[in-house]
TrEMBL record:
Protein name from the UniProt record: tRNA-splicing ligase RtcB
The record's free-text note on cofactor binding: Binds 2 manganese ions per subunit.
Cofactor entry: Mn(2+)
Matches recorded under PANTHER family: RNA-SPLICING LIGASE RTCB HOMOLOG
GO biological process, one term: RNA repair
Molecular function as annotated in GO: GTP binding; metal ion binding; RNA ligase (ATP) activity; RNA ligase (GTP) activity
Recorded name of the encoding gene: rtcB
Superkingdom of this protein's organism: Bacteria
Species whose genome carries this gene: Candidatus Beckwithbacteria bacterium RBG_13_42_9
Active site positions, chain numbering: H372 (gmp-histidine intermediate)
């Protein structure tokens, strides 16, 4: 190995990480050239494509398409209302109505296409400007931009680095949820751990919130496939080798790596805009029903590679299923969160708790990164084979969901690790601090 490999797990989570190939993948990742020590696996880590999901690595002059992953800039945002949970106002009938209204405006599932976009979009502009393009069109507020990682746009995006197939697949997918573990949740705040921070961030007990989890859809998937193939083809000419083709990487000085980096940034910007446009539709529903504005608390990316400064050095940090969590005083925080550190949004699995955290200075040892969710403990195939419908319903409790069990069995709560244990792992050792805990009232899941 060319770097230390470190994984974070509590005693309860240790058996989970040894069930699959996560640790082998972590070791393989640490064998890449030009790697900065350490290579890290978060407590939610599980087997992924090349690099374990929940992996963090940094390089000086190397980029790996596999270390970013297929769903480029899959990420999550939390919208916060001024509404207080009332069981009469948010009864079963009302929650079903809200889900139906949201699903009418936001296509879900594999291949979902949009029919309700408020304006005609220029894909080149979207991939170049991200959420900032939507702000110019009146579909994002200045606060939305400030409260999005990288202000909703990575500079240096290259539309021309996207293949024709990627562009074709992306048509009409802006403002769509997608499939798999992508979701929109209506939640309530059930526990406050840090009263001071909660007040500063305008969070309160029984507050109604909405969480959106989605990414770059087919654009990111196709782009990753295109460049994995290219990287594997040309790597020998640069004298680069890697443990397996899924870890394909090239020096950033190469034209192929530069092409990927620009195309990846285009996908990142598309994903920021995608979550922003869904926010526009969610706000329409809440304004119609409750006259509430739903301001954005924060939006964080999970799958991304970007230049950052750590330990006094400029590094290309790859996060694959990990969340940036800058502590208070870090200069890359937006102005509104400079004093506190920005919120780190950590969703749980369907029907379970989610958290808002804040990074602490000690998390410099993880390149200011924390876990991005609960993390799988079962493959999709295993979940479909082993989880029974009655078990699923028992776990979901009173959480409203419109989908039949057979269409979402692979996303059942039992297929994931215990989110409370995962979050506590980094909290106990002083890398993060819990601010609030939320529980879902209703969920819309990708299929």
């Amino acid at each position: 190995m060319n770097a230390e490999a470190i994984f974070y797990a509590s005693e309860a989570l240790l058996p989970e990480i040894s069930r699959d190939l996560s640790l082998q993948q972590l070791q393989n990742t640490a064998s890449l050239p030009d790697i900065v020590s350490p290579v890290i696996a978060m407590p939610d880590a599980h087997q992924g494509y090349g690099v374990p999901v929940g992996g963090v690595l940094a390089t000086h002059n190397l980029i790996s398409a596999g270390a970013v992953g297929m769903d480029i800039n899959c990420g999550v945002r939390l919208l916060v209302s001024q509404l207080t949970y009332d069981p009469e106002k948010f009864n079963i009938t009302r929650l079903h109505q809200l889900i139906n209204q949201l699903e009418h405006l936001i296509p879900i599932g594999l291949g979902g296409r949009h029919k309700h976009n408020p304006i005609n979009f220029d894909l080149k502009e979207i991939t170049g400007q991200g959420s900032q393009y939507l702000a110019k069109k009146g579909l994002a507020t200045p606060q939305d931009i400030e409260h999005t990682e990288e202000y909703g746009c990575l500079d240096g995006a290259n539309y021309h680095g996207l293949s024709e197939r990627a562009v074709i697949r992306a048509r009409d997918e802006l403002g769509t949820l997608g499939s798999g573990n992508h979701f929109i949740d209506i939640l309530k705040v059930v526990e406050i751990f840090d009263t001071d921070l909660a007040q500063k961030w305008h969070l309160f007990e029984n507050q109604i919130c909405v969480m959106i989890h989605s990414g770059s859809r087919a654009l990111g998937h196709q782009t990753c496939l295109d460049y994995l193939k290219l990287f594997n083809q040309v790597a020998p000419s640069y004298g680069i080798s890697f443990p397996n083709r899924e870890l394909a990487a090239l020096p950033l000085t190469s034209k192929e790596a530069q092409a990927y980096f620009g195309a990846m940034k285009a996908c990142v910007n598309f994903a920021f805009a995608n979550r922003q446009l869904m926010t526009y539709f969610v706000r329409n529903v809440f304004q119609k029903n409750f006259q509430d504005e739903l301001p954005l608390l924060y939006d964080v990316a999970h799958n991304i590679a970007k230049w950052e400064v750590h330990h006094g050095q400029k590094m290309l940090v790859h996060r694959k299923g990990a969340t940036r969590a800058l502590p208070a005083g870090h200069p890359q925080n937006p102005k509104s969160y400079l004093e506190t550190g920005h919120p780190a949004i950590v969703p749980g699995s369907m029907g379970t708790a989610s958290y808002v955290l804040v990074g602490l200075p000690k998390n410099a040892q993880t390149f200011h990164s924390v876990n991005h969710g609960a993390g799988r403990r079962m493959s999709r195939t295993q979940a479909k084979k082993t989880i029974r419908e009655d078990e699923f319903k028992q776990k979901m409790g009173e959480t409203i969901n419109n989908k039949p069990f057979y269409r979402i069995a692979d996303e059942a709560p039992q297929a994931y690790k215990d989110i409370d244990q995962v979050v506590e792992t980094l909290t106990e050792i002083g890398l993060t601090k819990k601010v609030v805990k939320l529980l879902p009232l209703a969920v819309i899941n990708g299929e």
